Amino acid sequence: MVGKRLRARYRLEAAFAALPFARQRWMTDAGREDLRTIARCADSKKFLAIGVHLHIAHGTSKQAIRSAVSSVQRQSVRARTVLVTAEDPTDAEGLQLDDPMTLLAGAYASQSLGLRAVLEAARDLQIPYMLPLAGRAQLPQHALAAYVAHLLQWDGERNKPALLFGDELMMSGQGRICEAWLKPEWDARMAWSQDYVSGACLVSVDAALAAVADNGGVTPPSIYGWALSMLVRAPSLAVTHVARITCCRPVDAWQDEGPGRLAQVEQFAPIATLARPGPFGTVRLQYPLPAPAPKVSILVATRDRVDLLRTCVQGLLEETAYPNFELIVADNDSREPETLRYMDEIAEDPRVRVVHWPHPFNYSAINNFAAGHASGEYLCLLNNDIEVLEPQWLEEMVREAVQPGVGAVGARLLYPDRTIQHAGVALGIGNAAGHAHRGLPVDDAGYFAQTHVVRGASAVTAACLVVAKRHFDAVGGLDEVALAVAYNDVDLCLKLRQRGLANIYTPLATLIHHESKSRGLDFAPEHLERYMRELAVFQQRWGTTEAVDPWHHPQLNRQSEVFN
After folding, report:
1. Residues 18-31: pLDDT tens digits?
2. pLDDT of residue 131
């Protein structure tokens, strides 16, 4: 408890975080902090012009409507105006709409149509931001304060965000907190895969109306559609995450597909993309593969263990559909006769080359050596203990890797028992880096379907990683001096991010990883000293003892790879 026994302290922190009052305590403390921020800013009044749009869908219970109205009325920072629209005006009869609440006349068939009218009214009232709220949702007490305090970070009008989004509480029908959706920072690639914004957001009136005007004046069918239309209009749109609970919604609302979510992605997505429904209300958006497909050099480092190598190579040569690749097997001084015979055998295939690196094991050096023999535009670093499951795996990774501004692309890797081994790497877990969602059954929703969506990641594992050779070379490849075995792939990805490139995780490429079967685990006694030395280098280089990963909310447990 006094900080001298780290393991005990981490266990205590995890125990406190799991207590029923933990989220409410954090919300209260965060709200007080935001109110202090507002009070310190002498010119804060100009930021208080935030309005709320409350839409009442037909059939919403009177109790739910009253709860939504009450949640707006009890805000610690009052809204400048609250504009109410209803699908059926009779549903709003009897409501106690105190000033500054106004019921707009007429019937509005959807929340989106209501928002259109509200945005136009807000523009006339010179209110720059509106918060859309559905009748089944509620605002926690300090929701508006959170947005106001966040906006105070911006100086002047030019740099303020056009779209802000917060975290959510998922509530049962009895008002019990089921789970908090603590969201990642803004990730444009993820926004095409999952609507993680519109349930708790604040929109710029001018930016939203401009996006609709550019779309021929057509009103999007949902709040998600408004967000996508704004993103398409201005790809560099300023979007920001407010790390506060700003909305409470029913427990399953996060995976509700709403009015045509897939159709909206198809409407607004880049030309020639293919959108398909994904699990748990997600969307699987596929970019087109260039024609002809770029050549990929698959690099497999190996030493003996022919049983693993045979499974891996068979999956590449016989079960991979990608039309243009070469396989470079980097032999790290294999000695077993069966292994040597097998490498001679596969070398007869014109797609295969075997190169020899007869030195002590150094994962970084072996792969850098193999990359020096590559003739492909793209490299695929692949462990020899990978088992191919689907013929399209490499194609799906290349679809992402060829996009402008993309660095490394990683796959979803499973243990043989079909639980998650890798679904992206999060910086700061364990004060170093950890595999997000490790151990989750592959078909489970897990933490808000995060293993099921294509999204950004700080890093991905080199057990299966695709990167443009020019990017790999530009950052000097893997660090073979200070990070010979551990953390070299995460280091590579972070160097790519330093150059302004985005790393991508895609579950559309799923393979089995028989992890560390050929070289052993880092924590084995014979490897521990080397591992601790490389860990220290990695921590110092990237400040991982303090770093907060953009895809790992600061309120999540840093000592767990399971998001809790």
Report:
1. 555 677 899 999 99
2. 98
Is 454 in a helix, a strand, or coil? coil
Contact yes or no for 514/385 (Cβ under 8 A): yes
| Tokens standing for residue 47 | 């930021």
d(CA 423, CA 505): 7
- Whether residue 243 contacts residue 167, with contact meaning beta carbons closer than 8 Å, is answered with yes
Long-range contacts of 473-479 (CB under 8 A, 24+ apart): 473/371, 474/499, 475/499, 477/364, 477/367, 477/368, 477/371, 478/363, 478/364, 478/365, 478/367, 478/368, 479/364
Residue 516 has pLDDT above 70, yes or no: no
C-alpha closest to that of 77 among 153, 181, 150, 183: 150
Contact 410, 503 (CB under 8 A): yes
CA distances from 430 to 144, 527, 563 (A): 34, 19, 13
Task: Report the C-alpha gap between 521 and 542 in whole angstroms.
Answer: 23
Give a three-class secondary structure readout of 328-389. EEEECCCCCHHHHHHHHHHCCCCCEEEEECCCCCCHHHHHHHHHCCCCCCEEEEEECCEEEC
Strand, coil or helix: 9 = helix
Measured in whole angstroms, the distance separating CA 524 from the mean position of its chain's CA atoms is 33
3-state secondary structure of 544: coil
**Residue 131: DSSP 8-state:** E
Burial of 94 (0-12, 13-18, 19+ CB in 10 A): exposed
List Cα–Cα distances, 146 to 79, 137, 149, 180, 420, in angstroms. Answer: 12, 17, 5, 16, 35
R_g (Cα) of the chain, nearest Å: 26
Alpha carbons 552 and 554: distance in angstroms, whole number: 6
Which residues are CB-neighbours of 277 under 8 A, at least 6 positions away?
257, 262, 283, 284
Give the E-state strand segments of 395-474 in sequence order.
Answer: 406-414, 420-422, 425-427, 433-435, 455-457, 464-468
Q: Nearest-5° angle of CA 74, CA 113, CA 72?
A: 0
Angle at 415 between CA 409 and CA 419, to 5 degrees: 90
Please measure the distance between the N-terminal and C-terminal CA atoms of the chain and give it in whole angstroms: 21
What's the pLDDT tens digit per position in 264-282? 898 888 777 899 999 999 9
| Tokens coding 63 | 């109790």
- CA torsion sign for 107, 111, 116, 122 is positive
The size of the chain, in residues, is 564
How far from the centroid of its chain's Cα atoms is residue 157's Cα?
29
Return the percent helix, strand and coil in the chain, to nearest 5. 35, 25, 40
Residue 301 φ then ψ, to 5°: -85, 140
pLDDT band at 518 (very low <50, low <70, confident <90, very high): very low
pLDDT of residue 42: 67
Pairing, β 325-331 against β 425-427: unpaired
H helices, E strands: number in the chain: 16, 22
